[in-house]
Give the backbone structure.
Amino acid sequence: MVRKSFLTVFVLGLFIFVLGAGQAAGQVVLVDEGFEGSYPPAGWATYMTGAADDPGFVQTDGTAPFHVVPHGGTYCVAHGDDNLSTDAISWLVTPQLVISNDQFSLHFWQADYYQSYYQYHGVWVSTASGDPTSGDFIELWTADTVDTWNEVTESLAAYNGQSIYLAFRYEGDYMDEWYIDDVMVDSPVPVELMSFSIE
């Protein structure tokens, strides 16, 4: 009886260990980007569809003319408070992503500077072209931004079974600065584990 109880505890402990490993192994990560390497990252693209003199989203370490240090690592991306000829409409677009289940979510960290001058920040999604000039992007998320780093999580369940592009969109002329870092698109779906019983 004691030996059987010991075996039961041992096997249950092993099962819990394997379950934990299975969940990690089963996580599907489509994007894990901290903007530490070349910019834009491989497969990403920037577009400026507003002011002709808009520099768009740029990589920064937070030093002048920018004001916010990255959330993680040495670099993040930001759109500055540029004094332009008219409103900037700037896009930072991910590679195409295949959303293979309804558990995928977008996570990213954001911060603001000159927050009282906020005009527009948003995340848009396209199931067709990754080029905003094609007119396929629609708004997925928008909100005013606070002046400290905060995490945003947005479900992509509505796009299960589809291929999509995500885009960060900034609008404004001599308005606020928007900072983005540590972007992830993932699904925490665990692998299936074989069931067993103890006689």
Remarks:
- Residues 88 and 183 are 23 Å apart (CA to CA).
- The chain has a mean pLDDT of 87.
- The chain has one domain: 28-187.
